[in-house]
Amino acid sequence: MKRLALAIAGGLAFLWGLLPESWRRGLFFGLFVLEGRAGDPAAGLRNLFGVQDALALAINERAMAYGEGEHPKHRLTAYHAFFIDRIPANARVLDIGCGYGAVGRSIATARPDATILGIDMDDGRLAQAWAAANPPNLSFLKADATITLPGGPWGIVILSNVLEHIDHRVDFLRAVVAAAQPARLLIRVPLFERDWQMPLRRELGANWLSDSDHRIEHRVSEFEAEVAAAGLAIAERSTLWGEIWAECRPAS
Q1: What distance in Å separates the CA atoms of residue 243 and residue 73, rounded to the nearest whole number?
Q2: Over the stretch 120-171, which tens digit does the pLDDT of each residue have?
Q3: Conformation bin of residue 33: beta by default, left when phi > 0, alpha when psi is -120 to 50
């Protein structure tokens, strides 16, 4: 069924591509204008935000294809370097929510004397992680970090786009610190204050989360309050590319 759907989409895309680009864009713009005028301005904005979300999904799918299985944002935003630069020699690194292992591979390659373990709950992503060309100091394990963690201590814990998927984030952070006993936690989360459209979306009752599984997208003040409540001190924090990047350490 999926192959048939892709074949049909490919055929339709070919026919669509026969139209001049100016016609295609003009048609889209006209449809967007009509969608924005279906109801009062608030309803129209909600409609258009829904279109924008669908477009973002399509862009991300094409970006993954363009990157041959790895999203170009890894390369273009250079956020892997944020983690690598803060990992000392011979460190034991636990990458929670490692996905298909892109961050872990970058760290393992740049820090060959370090030991990196990536954990995730998604079988498909873990299979993709294991199938990649991994350095010998990198391994992966299926585990639910909200229930248990591999035996520590781990000098560095990485939480790259993880906290926003957790309901009880303060309790989770406390449990991670107790189990892993890290010297540093390197955290990356999406920033709510990245664009004026985020508060407008929330005001209108439109979707304001960039992923359907997100529980939150933090304001800076919310992030700072949560890590402090978990007994962590922020050693360094920056906002880049619509995200918060932070190095945190146990306050004690």
Answers
A1: 12
A2: 999 999 999 999 999 999 999 999 999 988 887 999 999 999 999 999 999 9
A3: alpha
CA distances from 184 to 43, 91, 107, 149, 178 (A): 46, 11, 15, 16, 13
Burial level of 245, CB count in 10 A (0-12/13-18/19+)? buried
For 77-250, which CATH class? alpha beta
**What is the enclosing helix (H) or strand (E) of 14?**
helix 2-17
Q: Are 70 and 64 in contact (CB under 8 A)?
A: yes
pTM of the model: 0.86
What are the residue ranges spanned by the domains of the chain? 2-66, 77-250
Look up residue 206 and give its two tokens. Answer: 């439109």
Residue 249 β-bridge partners:
233
